[in-house]
Amino acid sequence: MPRVSQEQARLNRQRVVEVASALFRQRGLHGVGVADIMGAAGLTHGGFYGQFANKDALAAEAFECAIKEEYRGNLDSLVGNYLSLGHVQAPEKGCPLAALANDVAREPSGSPVRARFTHGVERLAAILADLTPRASRERRRQRSLATLSTLVGAVVLARAVDDEALANDLIEAARASVAG
Asked: Around Cβ 71, how many Cβ atoms within 10 Å?
């Protein structure tokens, strides 16, 4: 079998990370295996270990890929997009904080995934702080952490309940809380 070029190898690796990012958000860190990821990327399982040390290394990279997705606009548009039914119903396309918080909480302290998750929390909190009306730096940080907790918590709960009306109520209550 001919070897792939360095460019093709780079593209393959990028594809694996993107596919893993979506699958981990959709099924959880332990709900998808290496063979599933490689198959969904259109590659063979055998190529995995030439690209990644292990599944945890891929998970950390996939999380980083997901958290780098753009959060654009003003605070109202960011909150509106985050607290949308589309975000609730499509975890594979949404924020990895809401999709993976429970899985990451079970990872050992100091794990690469947990470190990337912590960085993601800090990054999104900083974005929210920058969008918060002028106040002291500490007050903006405090407000951004409260907003982030409300956003993530509402989406996690809305995804978990099996009552669509309650899911909508959770989202609307979070929207009202953040707006107020």
From this structure: 16
